Amino acid sequence: MSDLMNDKNKPVIMAGPVLIPPRHTRTLKLELPVEIPVDVAQCSVSLVNDEEKSVAVREVSVKKGDRCFCVWHCDCVCLSDDPRLLCREMAEARQSAAGLSNRDRIRHARSACYKDVVTLNIFIIFTGVIVALLLLGCVKAILGLIFSCIGLWGLDQMVQIPRKIDHYYEKSLKCRPVEYDQDGYPIHPDSKQRTVRMLSRSVEFILNVIFFVSVPCIIICDAIKEMISRCRNQCTQNPCCMTTSKSESKKCFSSQDMQMRPLLRSDRHMDSATHRELDDSCVDSEQDDTDYVLTQMQKSRESLSVCGVLYHAVINA
């Protein structure tokens, strides 16, 4: 009994011979309910035709408690031996015996000249991306030497345009004074058109070479700055921030001279409702001010009564 994977990758249980057309691939799962007396065994799998003649023969490895893979032109490899399952080429004689043709070899193992390390792979990928972007920049720089519109395209992201120049970069205009239009662009002194170069060829070439590397970095930096500015604006408009600042100013005011409280009492009373909504600590401060005013009024009343008694005594005298 064996499980055969059909074209829809669904297992089909079959018994007996299985017909596989030429140049077709089928996945066959065979269960061997036999205990292997050794830990590692080498088995031969033979593919025969209708006449019971061997067409292809391949040796496979069977290992206890392990998974082994025998794929295409590669030797059998087990997970315990090589967790990365790197391909080791079979000998040409064994490949021919397995029915694998070197002429029609489509799938092959990719050979790498460096160790399979995560950090090294990341570094190589990053370096490859940078090199690819620099190559694109070189193409833009070379085309920019021929077509000025291609050379100047996108450079406003890297340099300030319009910009003032010390002199014209054209040889025929190098000795003439630079003229600008209303928008600040340098113009041709005769035609009054924006047909003159704003950068020298060497500077433009270098900027174009690093264009595809620098512009993404500039865009990312601008996006980060915009996010930071938005966060600061939200913090400024947030009532919690205003509450904190008003609470601190209230504490500073409470530490001032007690003689100033009656003079500033009216201003605080006008804003007491607003402060009460922003900070609960304002209630204690207002209560202290009220107690202070009542105490001062009581002292004034007592002093006035004493003065009245003295004045009455003087008159009676």
Structure overview:
This protein is α+β, with helices and mostly antiparallel strands. It contains nine helices and nine strands. It has helices spanning 92-97, 118-146, 148-152, 201-209, 211-237, 239-254, 261-270, 272-278, 281-316; strands at residues 2-5, 11-14, 27-30, 40-48, 54-63, 68-69, 77-78, 179-180, 186-187. A three-stranded antiparallel sheet has the order 2-1-3, with no helix packed on it. The longest helix is centred in the last third of the chain and has 36 residues, at 281-316. Residues 1-5, 249-270, 272-278 and 313-317 have low confidence and may be disordered.
How many helices? The count is: 9
Q: Sketch the topology as an H/E string, one letter per element.
A: EEEEEEEHHHEEHHHHHH
**Overall mean pLDDT:** 74
Low-confidence stretches: 1-5, 249-270, 272-278, 313-317
From the N-terminal CA to the C-terminal CA, the straight-line distance is 138 Å
User: Strand order of the main beta sheet, please?
Assistant: 2-1-3
**Percent range for β-strand residues:** 5-15%
Coarse structural class: alpha+beta
**What about the largest sheet?**
3 strands, antiparallel
Transmembrane segments: 120-153, 205-224
Keywords: Membrane, Transmembrane, Transmembrane helix
List keywords for this structure.
317 residues, alpha+beta, three-stranded antiparallel β-sheet, 9 helices, flat, disordered N terminus
